[in-house]
Amino acid sequence: MFKKFTVFAVAAICAVSSLSGAELNSFPEVKKAGMAAYNAKEYDKACEIFKAWTPKAATGYQKWFCFFWQTKALRNLKKYDDALKVCDAYIKSDPVVQDKAGANFICALIYVSKNESGKAVPFLEEAINCPEFKTKYAEMHRQACDTLVAQLYFLRNYDKCVAAADKVIPTIPAELQEQAKVYRVLALFDLKKFSESEKAVKELLPTLKNNYNKHMISYIYGQILLKADNEDEAVKYLQETIKLNPKGWRSNAAKKLLLDLE
After folding, report:
1. What tens digit of pLDDT does each residue of 57-80 get?
2. Could you tell me which residues come within 8 angstroms of residue 137 by beta carbon, excluding any fewer than 6 positions away?
3. Taking the complete model, does pTM exceed 0.85, yes or no?
4. Of 91, 95, 175, 181, which has fewest CB within 10 angstroms of its CB?
């Protein structure tokens, strides 16, 4: 009996997923078929299904769901300009504030994928400044905070990076603050605020879980210690830099510093 039911269930799912977006008559069918296509990495088909249902969407949730997965599929296809057009249309449809903030975050991710960090920043700031966004989409809010701090650092806007980190870190759960704190330290160091960066490093190092973050911060700390003429401790952290990521550019720089100390 169970085997027969399973066969019929699978057949039903396959039948729904084989339909085009225009042939689907209810949101549950759209959701099932669209996600089946997406999970099968048939991103063009997923886009077609979600796009076709968007004008028929009866609720804000249906509109958000179709928007979210359509843009995600387009990003996987690297059709970034098409994804931005979908974002623009969705934002202009006047969704509730938390969903609009979510759309701003997705716009930012698309610009990051296009290597256009400067265009991403305003969308990230608008998303983060929406309290309802944090309440409804806590994980996306945390990602937006991390992305903003990182992109400001990559833009070499170090003062703004530190200011943004100081603003967003208290809004992130303590166990998830690592990434923002790492870029804050990097920015402080590049601003030549060595005493502040050393204090931040000492607080951060014992808490780091990500090995790449340990690699970056060990390199920074090694340089800070060299500037303080503490060569023995500097050697320890420069060696740790190399151990954590032997092929990284920071490791090559650490090897050069160690050679200079011999």
Report:
1. 999 999 999 999 999 999 999 999
2. 98, 101, 102
3. yes
4. 175
